[in-house]
Amino acid sequence: MAQYRYHLNLQLFSGEKTESATPKKRQEAREKGQVAKSMELPGAFILLFCFMAFLMFGGFMKERLIKLISGSINDYLLADITMGNVMPLFNHLMTELVIMIAPVFLISVVVAVLGNYMQTGFLLSGEGLKMKFNKINPLEGAKRLFGMRALVDFAKTMLKLILIGYIVYSSLWGERGNLLGMAALPLESTLNYVANLTVMLGIKIGAALVVLAVFDYMYQKYEYEKNLRMSKQDIKDEYKKSEGDPLIKGKIKEKQRRMALQRMMQDVPKADVVITNPTHFAVAIRYETGQMDAPRVLAKGTDFVALKIKEIAKQNGVVTMENRPLARALYDQVEIGQAIPAELFQAVAEVLAYVYRLKGKAK
Asked: How would DSSP label each residue in 291-352?
């Protein structure tokens, strides 16, 4: 019973998502468009930089607006309403408006692009365009409406409203003396004061929203990492899919090893000599005059494999010679199919010469 409980607890713990996501899962999530991203951050930056643009280009926009109004009054106020008069006036007004708002528009576009790029990098994914029927499922919609994410979004909205209300109230309360004295100011001074107050309010609100957006991005990143977490079993399954089942790979390697061993044993009868340790090592050597630059190792092995090599050599009349240091050196330094290294030429040549004399051959 205790052992059963142990295995049950082990299965439960292995199913808990406590491990960080692997690079493969992160890449798959990114390909699906799932990244850590705050929708608040680009909007907050756009608001802040737009009001800063008004502060920087306010004089330019004021001059263009005054010039536009005065020009329209002087040139078109008493003009006849005809197609020939209206179209030039419309083109002129549109051109002047585009010139006035161009700096703010360009800054907004650049900030929006950078705000998204800084969060996710370059990302193109069509996964969000696919039709997903669970999005129109009433139960799924209820979960999204009353879930934790909806609660967090509601809290963020209320916090923004409270923060903006406080900024507006504190700023206007600090300017209450000037606001009460506006009635005595000329129209131009009143407009300048209202414009400056509006811009400063916008900058303060934008800066406050940027701070909130940074915290929101940190929360979104935490949620993203939390949702990407994997269990130990998930990591094992992913490894099996990418690298293959270790059991199957082990069987394949074992089969390959047996096939290689079988091919090696088939080459033993072609050897000129088998050099032994005498019990632990066996190395089969072959040399063909005029066809090989140096003798080559056809087979080698230790213990059981060495015994098998000696048995096959004996069955096929291959000479077996004991030379402990040479057998050990050949086994350690030369792989199957490779030529003998130069430092072992002399020792191997002496062995082959003995074998040739034993067989009654010439070197």
From this structure: T-SS-EEEEEEETHHHHHHHHHHHHTT-EEEE-HHHHHHHHHH--TTPBPPGGGHHHHHHHH
